[in-house]
Amino acid sequence: MKRFILSSLLLAGIALFISHPIAWSEEVFDFGGQVRVLSGWEGPGDGVLLEGEPSLWIRGILSPTVSFELSARLLSTLDTPPLLDVERGVFQIQVPRYPELDSSFIFQGGRFKVADFSTYVFDHRLDGALVQWKFPYTRIELSGGYTGLQPREVSHIYLSRSDAMDADDSSITYGPPRTIQIATFTFPRLMLSQDMILSFVAQQDLRSQKSGRPPVKRDRVHTNYLGLGSEGKLYENIHLSLFGYLSLGFVGVSSRLFSGIYGASILWKGKDKYKSEIGGVFVSASGDDRLSSLYDGDSLRESNLFLPVSKKDTGVAFSPLLANITFLQLRGGFFPLPKVWAEAQGFLFFRTTGGPISESGVDSLDQSDLFLGPEWDLKLEWQVYSDLKLRSNFGFFLPATGSVGAYSRRDPWVKGTIEVLFSF
Fold first, then answer.
1. How many domains is the chain partitioned into structurally?
2. Helical H runs in 294-372?
3. Does some domain include residue 309?
4. Are 146 and 172 members of one domain?
């Protein structure tokens, strides 16, 4: 009820602000909306998929340095009642140039999406604040906030067993209660046209004891991540990114986490009329074959299982939590027609060790086979008109079994969706 009242007040505020004859000015304020409808099928899983999502947004410039943005949506699916979700609500102060320091300054407060530079540790919404300074030889970005006021249905945080249990519990209203801090220092073109990046991410588990959940003294997860990376042009039309994170933390009161993730991506962009792209991604997150399940870290004095703060999507059909996962992705895309984008991608998924992963079906008695299987995806996007877009995604994952595969059964995973987006 509290969430519904707050969301209703925010939407009412949008309507009042737009319609007020004194405040409205086309030069200062802008507003609009979108209607999204998705239908599809996936198996194994939910079977038929059907989603509807009308949304509204408003942006305003209050002065040369002060602005705001607010967006909200009503999300409906076959399995859940309509959910009113405030996606973004930001108050921003921007000083384009600070003469004394030859720098610019940005402050944002409210609800916004933020990510670490790799997006593999944290890529999620926060209720908090962000500060960014840009100097001639460095960029500094500091952000922090809270995740426990966002609807459970849109949360993608699965650090503990309680987090995973909450995700499927309709009696839970909000997402996991955690505080997040991110610090990123970027040094532009420091070496061979590459930006060097130093990053620090920390999260604290604020969960209290609830009935039906594991004891918090054993299930709380606190983690810190220290990262180093680079990104920039390797050649005129070739972009290269490298990253690595070392993670230290605790599960419960007596089990330590010592783990890591690293990866690389390369992207070639053609200059032909088709605007072709060819890219590759390699990512490896550490695991621990001594664990009996993904959330069994408190059973060891020290675990090497990497746990990201938020889940990042990979394949269309198969998208595991990047814990004890290594994958190789190759993709290519182009514009066969001026308004039609076509893309194909393939994955090879592996367990990093013979330990558990987030998805079911892996042979628990087989720790020697690491190959999980390949996936092939096709994606199409057609910008029919300026305010009408169609998307289609299809994914096919084939679990690997037998002498080279980690799965016990070879039943394929399939997912296909068609999405219609109308803007106004």
1. 2
2. none
3. no
4. yes
Q: 259 pLDDT band (50/70/90 cuts)?
A: very high
Distance between CA atoms of residues 164 and 424, nearest Å: 37
pTM (two decimals) = 0.89
C-alpha–C-alpha distance, residues 212 and 255, integer Å: 22
Q: Cα(132)–Cα(102) distance, rounded to whole angstroms?
A: 14
Q: Would you place residue 98 in the very low, low, confident or very high pLDDT band (cuts 50, 70, 90)? A: low
Q: Which domain holds residue 75?
A: 31-94
The β-bridge partners of 112 are 126
Looking at every residue in the chain, the average pLDDT score rounds to 91
Q: What is the pLDDT of residues 162-182, one digit of tens each?
A: 999 999 898 999 999 999 999
> For the residues 399-420, what does the mean pLDDT come to?
94
Q: Which residue do the tokens 């991506």 mark?
A: 265
My answer on whether 150 and 71 are in the same domain is no
Residue 160 belongs to some domain of the structure:
yes
Nearest to 172 by CA among 205, 217, 211, 124: 211
Residue 137 and residue 76 share a domain? no
User: For 177, which DSSP code?
Assistant: -
Place of tokens 């609500």: 89
**Has residue 296 been placed in a domain?**
no
Condensed to tens digits (0 to 9), the pLDDT of residues 319-332 reads 999 999 999 999 99
- State whether residue 162 is helix, strand or coil: helix
Task: Label residue 9 left, alpha or beta by phi (over 0 means left) and psi (-120 to 50 means alpha).
Answer: alpha
Cα separation of 375 and 392, whole Å?
17
Answer yes or no: do 120 and 265 share one domain.
Answer: yes
Instruction: Give domain status of residue 285, yes or no.
Output: no
